[in-house]
Specification:
Elements lengths: L4 E6 L6 H14 L4 E5 L5 H11 L8 H25 L3 E5 L2 H11 L4 H11 L7 E6 L2 H7 L13 H17 L4 E5 L4 H12 L4
Parallel strand pairs: 1-3, 1-4, 2-3, 4-5
Helix pairs in contact: 1-8, 2-3, 3-5, 4-5, 4-7
Bound molecules: adenosine-5'-triphosphate and magnesium ion.
């Protein structure tokens, strides 16, 4: 079946995004829809190259403007090469992070101006907005302790305070646009969260 629907998952590191996306993709497939799963930064060959620059812990000197623009550059490629074509084919697209992550990390986390982030991202994405966004909420310490990577990347190396600002930023964004966001308690079990996600999505299918 065809269904052009753009779903995003947001939340700090270790909040359970990848876990829930894998389960949701299986659910959507079982319901008879084509699903495209992707993630940011990355998702395309160009994006993977940008990701390696963005997350390289050796680039501690990276200016915050550079960071904002690299995320937007990655997103431009992601939308043009992968997301738009998949939606145009009638696929359901699930993206692990999207513009809201740039607002949460670069604005609420770094203090970069919101209008700058909105402007470059609006242009980079040709105005494409998600239909529904799931926010997985976990306490910062829990999320970071769940993070599986042995060596923290450039963003994961940031302080607890930084990640706590990011988390609060996500919740502020969700509160401002309740029609798009579904806020889920990420401390519940994997299956319980999946049920909440599926129930919220059903009306869109
Ligand atoms: N609801 C849950 N309860 C307990 N553990 C969970 C839950 N969801 C995920 N986990 C575990 O926590 C770890 C991080 O989960 P996951 O990789 O899905 O998070 P993520 O949000 O994708 O993180 P990242 O931003 O680092 O990619 C994994 O080991 C996963 O198995
Ligand atoms: Mg993940």
């Amino acid at each position: 079946m065809k269904k052009s629907l753009f779903i995003t998952f947001e939340g700090i590191e270790g909040s359970g995004k990848s876990t829930q996306i894998a389960l949701l993709a299986e659910y959507i497939k079982a319901r008879g829809y084509e699903v495209t799963v992707t993630c940011e930064p990355g998702g395309t060959t160009v994006g993977e190259a940008i990701r390696r620059i963005l997350l390289n812990p050796e680039f501690a000197e990276m200016d915050y403007h550079t960071e904002v623009l690299l995320y937007a550059a990655d997103r431009a490629q992601h939308v043009a090469e992968l997301i738009m074509p998949a939606l145009n084919k009638g696929n359901i697209v699930i993206s692990d992070r999207y513009i809201d992550s740039s607002i949460a990390y670069q604005h609420f986390g770094r203090g970069m101006p919101l209008d700058l982030i909105m402007d470059v991202n609006d242009r980079a994405t040709q105005g494409l907005k998600p239909n529904i966004t799931f926010l997985l909420v976990v306490p910062t310490e829990l999320g970071l302790s769940r993070a599986t990577q042995v060596k923290a990347d450039r963003i994961e190396q940031e302080s607890i305070e930084f990640h706590t600002r990011v988390e609060a930023g996500f919740q502020e964004l969700a509160a401002k646009e309740p029609g798009r966001w579904l806020v889920v308690d990420g401390t519940r079990s994997v299956d319980e969260i999946h049920q909440v996600v599926v129930e919220a999505l059903e009306p869109f299918l």
